[in-house]
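Ticket #4471: structure output looks truncated?

Reporter: J.K.
Steps to reproduce: submitted the chain below (213 residues) through the standard prediction queue, then opened the result file.
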Amino acid sequence: MDFDPVAAIMAWIGAYGLVGLFAIALAERFVPVIPSYGLLLAIGIGAADEAWSLPAAFLSTVAGGMFGCAALFYTLRGLGTTRSVRLLNGAGRIFGMSVDRIERGTSSFRRNQAMLAFALQLVPTVRLFAPAFAAILRGRSRSVLVASAAGIAVWNGLFIGIGFYASHTIEKGNMTVLALAALGCLLVTEVALFWLARWVRARSRRVRALCQT
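Returned output as attached by the reporter:
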């Protein structure tokens, strides 16, 4: 692969320093032309090359991502309860979901909103729309935004760290290829954790059923 879009974008924003990092992290929440994991890997490599310090790069990208997350959340939160319910029910009908099922799903989200807001920030693509889901479902702003900030920090720190520590071994390599490889490893890990969680829940239900008999 000769074309390296991640390296091309990093060369463009490099001239703007930390302001450029904040801006690209903010823009990625709304216009994800280049996936965030690729950009973050490149930012970590830039920190290893002393284009910026590692802590400053981490804080700048987290701030940009969190600002975009909050902006999307409060924009859709401004629709109000009536419009949110109408939008939610309309979307549910498109996917064949009954009103009762939507209400059960909404109740489940509200009981676990902090955990879900955090977890969804670790899922590629879905993480960009998670604040919109939370706003439409009328999640509590403080719980959702604090949990989202923690998820953004973990996501950014993971890929910036990978780029930083891998920079010496891929000095002449293609950053886009590295980004895709890292994403593949992340997805495999998430799928494994998902199936493990399902197995644990199923086992717990069987144990409870045996105890009740």
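Triage note (M.O.): checked the attachment and the full token line is present. The mean pLDDT is 75.
Status: closed, working as intended.
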